[in-house]
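Project standup — Tuesday

K.O.: blocked on the structure for the chain from last sprint. Re-posting the sequence here as requested.
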Amino acid sequence: MFTSGMNPALGMTFMTSTMMIALPSAIKVFNWIGTIWDGNIQFNAVFLNCAAFVALFIVGGLSGIFMAAVPVDIYFHDTYFIVAHFHYVLFGATLFGVFAGVQFWFPKMFGRQMHDGVQKVHFVLTFIGMNGTFFPMHLLGIAGMPRRYADPYLHGYLEHLLPMNQFMTISAIVMGFAQFLLLGNFFFSMFYGKKVGRNPWGANGLEWSAPSPPGHGNFDVPPVCYRGPYEYSGPESEALGQDFILQTTAPPTGVKAVAAHH
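H.V.: unblocked you, prediction finished:
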């Protein structure tokens, strides 16, 4: 839009409205960080993938602000900087969230747990490969390398960028082969993974009181809720010597009045 020749005054309107997108995105980021702040963090592969999601979403969001500015976007338009931006958001952020979700919900789906060590190796290789593939694209875009060229090195002013593209290719191959670890772990764990109970993560949500895997109708007994799903480290859970308590767990003796008050 900014390079289509439209009225510059209209471009300022689009620029302002596009930059405003950063406000709700920033609120979400602070919300995610505030959720884990001072919490009892478990450094398993699920958390690592969630943390990578937040970190990469920040990088992708910040590069988006560059392109929201008309003067900067005119230079960055149709360069590798654009490719870097949307891959950090659509691949870097989104897929790491998917990786976390797959491992988190796997026990509820199959009654077994994926091997956490293999998932950590998958995370490290994918994280390194992803950043090695897409972060240099920012530098290529700043250098003026256009996208959608079958052979950009026909142009002499781009020849010095070839080593960086070769490094990106190697990183992409590493990232691609790392996904075989995820697939292998997934299908192996379906049959040979460690058997777990209803709530292997110590979560508070109602779904974790259902059998793993759930039968017809999900719940084997009608659930009775005594509290909300996000009440961690409250008086009730502390009375049980833990930092979580399921919604369906009756209030411990001595804290009934507190639970009723809340």
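K.O.: great, moving the ticket to review. The radius of gyration is 24 Å. Residues 203-262 form one domain.
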